[in-house]
Amino acid sequence: MTPGRPAAVFDFGQTLVQGDPMYDLAAYLRERGAFDGSLWPAVEQAMRAYREHLAPYGQAVAEIMRSIALGLRGLGLPEFARHCRAFYEAGYREAVYPYARPLVAWFRRQGWATVGVTGICETMARAIADDLGLDHLVATAFGVDASGRLDGTARYPEDDAWKGPALARLAAREGLDLARSVAFGDSEADAPLFEACRHAVCLNARPELVALARARGWTVVPAGRDPLPYVRPLVAG
User: Fold this and answer.
1) Domain at 7-236, CATH from 3.90.550.10, 2.30.29.170, 3.40.50.1000, 3.30.420.10
2) What's the pTM?
3) For labelling, which of 70, 88, 126, 146 has a CA lying 20 to 30 Å from the CA of 94?
């Protein structure tokens, strides 16, 4: 049997892009009257729980996504997609880490598949993925009603381990060889990606992930360093 392609698998927030993309997008839409302002306190409360570790990671992110989805309820999907592209092009494109484009391009030159696995909503994540040249994307879906408008639901799983099974399903469908692949992430929520792949590389890692990485022997790239010198020996080995 012909072996599948190896893949470079990327989380998004704090791995490929700075900041909190969904929170920043919601703030942008609120300023333009496309987000229900009455839902904003719920978004901020959920964001505080996430940033201050007041709730398990999956639970906190799921609450952020639910609150944002409710604030966008009734917005037409094409209009939402236009807003996402405008937000990205108007400035959020500059939030992409300087190393991200060269890193993705390097893997593409090696003939590897490039994959994004993120809790960001698919419409926003697609703008980032297309700009960076990622081949495949797994992201949160916002519900859409029969008229093509956002219905206020977000299909984000609260199980912190969701990224592992999601990646495994994609790999089976696309013929990717995870046993030769490399995963990149910044938080303990990315551990399932690391465990699914041969190599793990921690970028801008939260303290909890650094501690776990030391125990598991995963690569930790110091803040501000170019990850490529750390990646090349892994791929060559």
Assistant:
1) 3.40.50.1000
2) 0.95
3) 70
